Each structure stands twice: as C-alpha cells, then as structure tokens.
Amino acid sequence: MAEQWTEVGSSATETLDVDCDVCIGVKRKAAQTCVTCLASFCETHIQPHKQSEALKRHRLEEPTSNLQQKLCPNHRIMLQLYCRTDQTCVCLLCVAVKHKDHELVEMETERVAKQAQMDVKRKEIESSIWKKQRQVALTIAAIEELRRSAQREIQECEKTFTSVFQSIQRLRSDVTVLIRNYEQSEVRKAEELIQQLEKEIEEQKRNISMMAELSQTDDHIDFLQKFSSVQDLPIDGDTPSIPADRHLFPGSVRMDLCSLKKYLNTMSSLEFVEMRQTDACPLSLDANTVNGSLRISEENTMVKSNTVKAHYPIHPDRFERWPQVLCREALFGRRYYWEVKWSGEHADIGVAYNGICRKSGDSKCLLGGNDKSWSLVCSGSRYSVRHNGVDTVISAPSSQTVGVYLDWHAGTLSFYSISDTLTLLYRFHTSFTQPLYPGFRVTGSVTICQLN
C-alpha cells in the first residue's frame, strides 16, 4: 500500500517533466497524453487530435509518463473496464476470456463508487485522528497536572521536613542546654562536697597527728587528762554523695525522645514500599523438586501438606525425605523481593544453592541445615533463623506473612514480618557465589503472594 501511494504521488509530480513523444531533437513539454494512442503531445502536435473528427474520439488526459500502468499486463492493450467480481481493471480481451459472466462497470462509474467509499474512510480516519489528538491533548494536560501536583507535594514535603528538622534542631539545642545546666548544677554541688570532704580529711589528719604525739608521751597523767578530748573526736558523719549513673534529665523528656525515635524509624517503611515496587520477583514452584508429602496448586504458587503420599515421577531434583520444595527461578546478580503467607504448625522460608542435599533424611538436607542454604523458621510462638545447622532464636511477634529481600551482590538476605507494622526479623550477611533458589519446608501450607 505504501508503494502504491508512493507511485501515485510520484506520478503527480512527473506531469511537469513529461516530454512530447513526437518532437525531434529538442523535445518540448507535453500538453496532454492520449491514452488511445499511448503517446504524449506538445501543444503543437496535439492539434490533430483537436481538429480531426477521427482523433477527437480519442481520450485525452493530463500529461503522464505512466502509460504502462494503463496497459493490460497480459494483452498489452488499454484497460477500459473494472471487474467488481475480481476487484481489478481489465481490458476487452480479458472480458472475453476470463471475466465474461462477471460484474463489469465503466471505470468512471467505479471511481465514483470507490471515491464515495474513500470519502467515508477518510472521514472515519479524520474522526479517529481528532479523537487521538484530543486524547493526546488530555494526556499532555494530565501529565502537566501530574507534574504540578508532584511539585506541590515535593514543596509541601520540603516544608514539612524543614519544619521537622528545625524542630528537632531546637529540641536538640534545648535538651543539650537542659543537660548542661543540670551538669553544671551537679558539678557545683560535687565540687562543694569535695571541698567539704578535703577539709574534713585535713582535720582528721591533724587529729591523727595529735593522737600520735599523745601516744609518745611518758607522762601518764597528761595522757589520761587529754584522752577524753581524743575519744570525743568525730570519725564519720552523714556525707552526701553524687550518684554517677543518674539520668541527667526528666523521664518525661526521655520518653518523648524515645517516641520521636520510634516515629522516625517508621519512616523506613518508605524504603520498603520502594523495594516492594522495584524489586518484586514473581516466583513459581518447581514440580520436579516437591516432596511426595506435599501437593502444589495448578498455578504453582501454593504448596500444602498432603494426607496421602503422592507418587511423583523419579527426578534427581526431588526432595525424597523432607517435606520441601524449591522454586524454578534462579536468583542471581541483582536484588529480589517476594512475600509468602504460611499457615499450620510451622514453615521454613529460605533460599538454597542448586547443590543442596535432596535424598537423605539427615538434618543436613533441611533448608538452613547446611552451608548451601539459609532459612527463617516460622511457628505460632516464635521465629528462628538457621544456616549451616546453627539455629538462632528471634524475639519478635509472629506474623502469617513474611517478606524476603535478597541483595545478591551485597550478600544480604533479609526477612521481614508484615502485619500492621513492618518489622525486620533478621538479616544474613554473607558472600553469595551461585544462583539461589527460593524454597520452603511445609507443615501446613505456604502461598507465594502475587505482588502488583
């Protein structure tokens, strides 16, 4: 179609360049083309067609060099009729040979019909263009409004954060002044106490010297007369003390600061939202790895305990003894995030290298029971993490939804408890060397969440 339009367009421009077919030597430009003679004539040589009665019957058109297009490719004579049956232009010989019983019309008649069809099509296209242009305009307006809205939000956030920052700065300054004032007051008291104690020490040292001198006398009467004064000397009174570990500002201020810290920590959930959007990883369970005591859904997104042991086909990747299953996806070289819901007695959620043991009933074939896997063990009462057979208990409220964040390059594997609040349960730090496959050990059910 594009080529046809190109040919039509080019023929329109070629009218200026059509030469007279009769001129000898310097050819003048053609004034008209005779489709009967299949030749183009200048103003001089076209005169016979205008003067001769026989030639007046010939059909003249605007100059064109595309005469071959008007010839029947089979019979090399002019195309004169249009076959509606075959939707093609035909010559008189074609009519006699192949189109005898077909619906035939004059080309002018068909041109009128086709022109009407094209006018309808053109209006439809113009309508479509108008609708799309309107949609473009509306979309551009929506983009501009979105940008303005985003800019307003950014400015509002900047104002809010600036205000919060200034408030925190003022609070920091006020608390610092409060602590320093209290410090100075307590230091002054302590220094006064030190002066008092040093004065008492000097007094007691003089008393010791006096007693030493009295002990050296040989005069018994003098000793006995002075002994009463020595006996009445004070030894220790109630000496005030300054506790070194006391808090330097009121408990209410400390509680307010703790509340502020807790609130600011919740801002980290924004990072979680971004992580959930940009690094979400769709997972599917690998039926070739599932243990016979488990059954997976048709969508390969849920696995649950099976009361009747299934007899799956023998496969080298299948877990033979432990109720475990891995996912098909190999996670390598970037960051990934996924969520699972678990129910039942407990569930192990983790990742493993492809080389994890699968055939033995030894604990080393468990997720986290070896150096090729890492797992979070979930139960109704507690969490723990396991790697290379070492379990670490985590103190955190249990949740039925767990988020897993893997940063392969950074060597971190993080587990989150997801409920009304987001809680980081544990983060493994290691150096991954191979692709990792998400996996589960199930006593109950585990469902991979579909993240939008």
UniProtKB/TrEMBL annotation:
CDD domains: Bbox2_TRIM16-like (cd19769), SPRY_PRY_SNTX (cd16040). GO terms for cellular component: cytoplasm. Signal peptide: none annotated. Residues 263-452 form the B30.2/SPRY domain. Residues 67-107 form the B box-type domain. GO terms for molecular function: zinc ion binding. InterPro entries: B30.2/SPRY (IPR001870), B30.2/SPRY_sf (IPR043136), Butyrophylin_SPRY (IPR003879), ConA-like_dom_sf (IPR013320), E3_ubiq-ligase_TRIM/RNF (IPR051051), PRY (IPR006574), SPRY_dom (IPR003877), TRIM8/14/16/25/29/45/65_CC (IPR058030). Residues 140-214 form a coiled coil. Keywords: Coiled coil, Metal-binding, Zinc, Zinc-finger. It comes from the Eukaryota. Pfam families: PRY, SPRY, TRIM_CC, zf-B_box. PANTHER family: B-BOX DOMAIN CONTAINING, E3 UBIQUITIN-PROTEIN LIGASE TRIM65. This is TRI16 protein. The lineage of its organism: Eukaryota, Metazoa, Chordata, Craniata, Vertebrata. The gene is Trim16_39.
